From TrEMBL:
Pfam families: 7tm_1 (PF00001), CutA1 (PF03091). This is G-protein coupled receptors family 1 profile domain-containing protein. It is a multi-pass membrane protein. The keyword Cytoplasm does not apply. The chain crosses the membrane at residues 20-40, 52-74, 94-113, 134-155, 175-205, 225-248, 260-283, 362-379. Residues 30-280 form the G-protein coupled receptors family 1 profile domain. Belongs to the CutA family. GO terms for cellular component: plasma membrane. Keywords: Cell membrane, Membrane, Receptor, Transmembrane, Transmembrane helix. Its main location: membrane. CDD domains: 7tm_classA_rhodopsin-like. One of its GO terms (molecular function) is peptide binding. Signal peptide: none annotated. It comes from Acrobeloides nanus.
Length: 506
């Protein structure tokens, strides 16, 4: 089921898979680093720190579960039956998407409440917003998100696989009642909370003379105000393009580019969540100090307590240091083993350094092999890529087959659809014998075949026009995409169909 035929890989599928893989790696690395650093340093154990851990956990689940399936679907174009519409895996993927998105939106609402309390009531902030209460809110958000998405699995709502996004997504139009419920229970309260808290803070900042000293101190000393502001802004900016695109008229964008644009905007939105790491890195000095501690040799938590125990550099930190030693010019030693402190290295340090060096060689070798395979695939697909690009450009045109009982009906339909610019040309082919069963009786009729050339976006209008004129109770109307054709002829069809353009002779 999960086999991939290299001969079926195209340049487009490889490009899509590369984008998805890059987003997945970015989310995985950024979320892991954020969670590890935030948990490691006790100074960062505040409400905002735990909220960011929750957001990073959502990113981690997305990188580990959703993105691998999208990556496989991108490269296995001919063998992805397990991801068809309403399949179990597709339904579970849509369920997880709703859970992660709902929990993320709820956490943003709690962040707004936290920042409102920290600014408007700084004297009572520590007593009202305790870590225990913060953890309860996070747990409540996740439990609510898990339960509110259950109808997708229990009621077996319609879930479709969208090739544009390489994702399984809930069919919102067919589940309107559930969509409205989600909007009322998730989006509406969260957006209202964020707007109210942010508006209150901005309004208070405009009256600087009325600010208390404690409020000024909170703004100057608490970097979390800036961190949360940029996190919310980045989330909004990353999701805005795909949301706006869904409400734009379809005729504003070339149909040949719509699929690619939707794919890019969707994965830009998904990958935008990784910006939290950079935001915290540049704004919060404590986070930055903890992140670089493995290379600087600095002991972040220098106190030994029952909860965390003695602070020392572990294998993970040592490996990180070994990988980046050429950049930061540090060596893989515990501070007590540094050459300035002791002339001899411990056996533990040498062993971990050798592990890191060997791992680095394996990584580089794997990377080179992967690049070689990609080069081979690209070399094999050069001709196929050119034909696919041409085919996709030409797929905006279609040919339609319609049978008619007489030459008079055929000419009437042909004149009407050409005159109304629903078709560029109609060929009337006589001498067609049709054998079929109708109302339990075998029929044999002499008919004529209309071969109609048009644009794919006019098929519905063309069908409606023909059905109104056609004398049959059930007229034949079959359309096929034009995969390729001469450029001048296709250009002529484009000019003849739809709104009037500069005409080109056939």
């Amino acid at each position: 089921m999960f086999e991939v035929d290299p001969s079926l890989l195209s340049a487009e599928s490889l490009a899509r898979a590369a984008v998805i893989l890059a987003v997945g790696i970015l989310l995985l690395v950024s979320s892991l680093i954020s969670i590890i650093v935030l948990l490691y340093n006790k100074t960062l154990h505040n409400c905002i720190g735990y909220y960011l851990i929750s957001l990073s956990t959502a990113d981690l689940l997305c990188a580990l579960i959703i993105i691998p399936l999208s990556f496989y679907s991108a490269i296995a174009q001919q063998n992805r039956d397990f991801l068809h519409d309403d399949s179990l895996i597709c339904r579970c993927t849509a369920y997880l998407q709703i859970v992660l998105l709902s929990s993320t939106i709820y956490i943003f609402a709690w962040i707004g409440v936290d920042r409102y309390a920290a600014f408007m009531k700084p004297s009572r902030y520590e007593s009202e917003h305790t870590l225990t209460r913060c953890k309860c809110w996070i747990a409540f958000s996740w439990i609510t998100a898990i339960l509110i998405a259950c109808p997708i699995l229990i009621a077996k709502m319609e879930v479709n696989y969208y090739r544009d996004f390489e994702l399984c997504i809930l069919n919102w139009s067919s589940t309107m009642a559930y969509s409205v419920t989600l909007a009322v229970l998730v989006l509406l309260p969260s957006i209202c909370t964020i707007l109210f808290t942010s508006t209150s803070i901005i309004t208070a900042l405009q009256k600087t003379e009325e600010l208390e000293d404690s409020q000024r101190a909170a703004l100057e000393l608490d970097q979390n105000f800036v961190v949360t502001l940029f996190v919310v802004i980045c989330f909004t900016l990353s999701w805005s393009p795909i949301v706006i695109l869904q409400f734009l008229p379809s005729d504003l964008i070339d149909p040949t580019d719509t699929e690619t644009i939707r794919f890019i905007f969707m994965w830009l939105a998904i990958g935008g969540s990784s910006s939290k790491l950079l935001i915290y890195m540049f704004i919060n000095p404590e986070f930055r100090r903890t992140f670089f501690a493995p290379c600087t040799g600095e002991v972040v938590n220098d106190d030994d307590d029952e909860e965390f125990g003695p602070r020392s550099r572990g294998l993970f930190a040592t490996l990180c240091c070994c990988y980046c030693q050429k950049l930061c010019c540090c060596c893989c030693l515990h501070p007590s083993d540094h050459p300035m402190a002791s002339p001899a290295r411990s056996e533990y340090t040498v062993t971990t350094q050798n592990v890191a060096i060997n791992s680095n060689r394996v990584f580089i070798g794997t990377l080179l092999v992967t690049l070689g395979l990609v080069s081979i695939f690209r070399a094999q697909d050069n001709t196929e890529m050119a034909s696919q690009i041409g085919g996709r450009i030409a797929s905006i045109f279609s040919v339609v087959y319609v049978t008619v009982p007489s030459i008079e009906v055929g000419k009437k339909i042909a004149h009407e659809v050409v005159k109304s610019r629903l078709a560029a040309c109609v060929n009337i082919v006589p001498g067609v014998t049709s054998i079929y069963e109708w109302k339990g009786k075998l029929e044999e009729d002499n008919e004529l075949l209309l071969i109609i050339k048009t644009k794919s976006d006019q098929l519905e209008n063309l069908k409606s026009s023909i059905v109104k004129i056609h004398p049959y109770e059930v007229p034949e109307f079959i359309s096929l995409p034009i995969e390729t054709g001469s450029d001048p002829y296709l250009k002529w069809i484009e000019n003849q169909v739809g709104e009037k353009k500069n005409e080109v002779n056939e």
